[in-house]
Write a structure and sequence with these properties.
Elements: H1 2-21, H2 30-35, H3 42-53, H4 56-68, H5 75-98, H6 103-110, H7 113-147, H8 149-153, H9 157-210, H10 215-225, H11 249-259, H12 262-269, H13 274-290, H14 292-295, H15 297-306, H16 318-326, H17 332-367, H18 373-394, H19 404-428, H20 434-454, H21 456-467, H22 475-496, H23 524-542
Amino acid sequence: MILAGFLGFTALVAVVTILGTRRHDVGQTAEGFFLGGRSLTGWVIAGSLLLTNLSTEHLIGLNGDAFQHTIAVMAWETTAALAMVLTALIFLPRYLRKGITTIPEYLEKRFDRPTRVIMSLLFLASYVAAILPVVLIFGAAGLESLFDVSGSLGIEVETARWILIWGIGTLGSLYAIFGGLRAVAISDTVNGIGFLLAGVLVTVLGLMAVGEGSAAEGLATVYRDEYPKFDITGDEPGSFLPFGVLFTGMIINQIFFWCVNQSILQRALGAKNLAEGQKGVLIGAFLKLLGPLVVVLPGVIAWHMFKGELTQADYLLAYPTLVKAVLPAALSGVFAAVMVGAVLSTFNSVLNSAATLWSFGVYRSLIRPDADDRQLVRTGRTCSLVLAVAAMLAAPFIDTEGSLYNYLQQINATFFGPMLAVVLAALFTRWVSAAAAKTALIVGPVMFFTINFALHDRIQAWLASTFGLVDPVHFLHFLAFVFLLTVLLMVVVSRVRPVADSAVGSAEVGEVPSPVDMQPWRHARWVSAVVVFCTVATYVALAQ
């Protein structure tokens, strides 16, 4: 039954993807392969955005963090909606007007080619160091916990994880390497529907188990009995995610991730027109507001049901234990397929974006400036294959002690602050020079790595003794600090090495006719206002 459900849903995704791509150019031209032929519609963009972001590191990681701590971890989801409003109203129109394929491409138009190459390499480094291997290890650990793959096959747990990592990685690579962005986006949409339905089902069944058949009664019971867990401000002593970070590093993180990050924005860059792009991003924003029902609340339900059996150290088992307890056996196969689909969606989306960055930002810029579409697609596929194999080799060696989701965010933060500072300078200033941009991209990540990793203990000890701090300074505060230092660095370098008189140095450089219709979505502004209101209302309602 489990195998039949798994194969059935997986086959459904494959069939829908094939039907959705067979009449479209997905591999013959660079635009077809990397941007889906600029043919993506709003709902496809929304579904792909959701599943590119959400995966098992959210289902297991964020639910595990909620099990350990409080629902304050939902800030990773709710504040994302605000950043997506900025994408829809401010950033996406600028990107589509330029007709760019990658974010680093704009930096070449604004600054110079070396800036584009450095930015592309930083994106690739962040994918290799964090996202790709973490997604695989979370997916493998989740499937092993949920379905006892090792027991079913009669093998060691580590062997089962190796098999799962290579199986998931290989399948995800096939979508990215042979299907291009449109295949990735369509498969993400189908998997996204399954992900939301399955995730909500587990939440409802968990509440029904607590409420003896009534989900409403179950929610009331969990809220009453675990009231401290529902403090969204996270201001308890030693908070895992203190409320103050929402106004420092969380802002930087979310604006970068949703307004600048190539692996996310590539779906919107493939929109058939601005209206569909804005519609997709804002639909995605609403879905992010619903995300905590799937990736946070189950962790609190698991705490209520199993706190006598599981300790906080068992946080990675919280969600799998809940699923095993409430999910009917008949749906186990479908749920397994949804879990695999969630991993695939993030993995293949990042691979597709990495291929785009490599082909346009490195291969054409440095190695073969005269490369045609065929060569760009071929080298992009090669890049995807190399990165996929590297991630599959590295994943089993990642330390799973502590919060893996927190680890992922800290590695990402090494790159996010400096990269965002440079992109904002490119978009909104005329006076920041190319020398300043390159310096910031190189020095910024080194500063964050030094503060948050290399000298972390010494810096925390100095801050505690100097300012009398009881709790360590959160890494998101360091992210905001490095962002400000990077901005200051660009100001200084631009004074020393200013924009040359012969250089354009304009935030509106490189004006060409847009490849898509730039008429905005007529509902964009009021829908954005509703998203903002719902986000603020969530915090007002759950603040304690």
